[in-house]
């Protein structure tokens, strides 16, 4: 069967109309004219007239751009609107200000950290000092107790010594034949000292 024909329900054939694809037509024309067109463009680019035409177009564009820039700047100066240069300058100032604020913030955080460390050290030292003071007070009270005990011990020794002296004196009377010559001067010295 033919691709362009189709069977109807009643069995008759009907030819289908086929529309050409514009892309296919363009593609065929492009490939057919590509070589000739490329050669023509290459030849025209090599000529002096093409170079003069491009040079004139570039000069015209630069002249227009310069005129446009000058006009825009004059217009911006006349009216209170910011130009892109003003905005760029303000943006640079803002960036510089942000950097300074960041530096200030970092310095502030460093100083706060140092301050916190210093306060921690001071707190540790004050706790140590309080412990030393409490130890010192404890030591002072212990020393006072020891001094009191020594005083009491001294008094007890003095009483004990007096008691023994009294006993010794009652045992040996002056002029007693049991007392030797050496003991007499020692006893007399003791009496003088008392």
What this model shows, in words?
With 194 residues, this protein is mostly helical. It has helices spanning 22-45, 48-78, 84-171, 183-193; strands at residues 5-7, 13-15. The protein folds into two domains: 19-81; 92-169. It has a two-stranded antiparallel sheet with strand order 1-2. The mean pLDDT is 81.
Radius of gyration (Å): 63 Å
Strand order of the largest sheet: 1-2
Number of extended strands: 2
What is the CA-CA span between the terminal residues? 162 Å
SSE pattern, N- to C-terminal = EEHHHH
Q: What structural class should be given to the helix and strand makeup?
A: mainly alpha
Low-confidence stretches: none
Strand content: under 5%
**Biggest sheet, open or closed, and with what strands and sense?**
2 strands, antiparallel
How many discrete domains?
2
Tally of helical segments? 4
- Mean of pLDDT: 81
Helix content: over 70%
Overall morphology: rod-shaped
Using brief descriptors, characterize the structure shown.
two-stranded antiparallel ribbon, 2 domains, 194 residues, mainly alpha, 4 helices, rod-shaped, single chain
Question: What's the structural blueprint in terms of helices and strands?
Answer:
Elements: E1 5-7, E2 13-15, H1 22-45, H2 48-78, H3 84-171, H4 183-193
Antiparallel strand pairs: 1-2
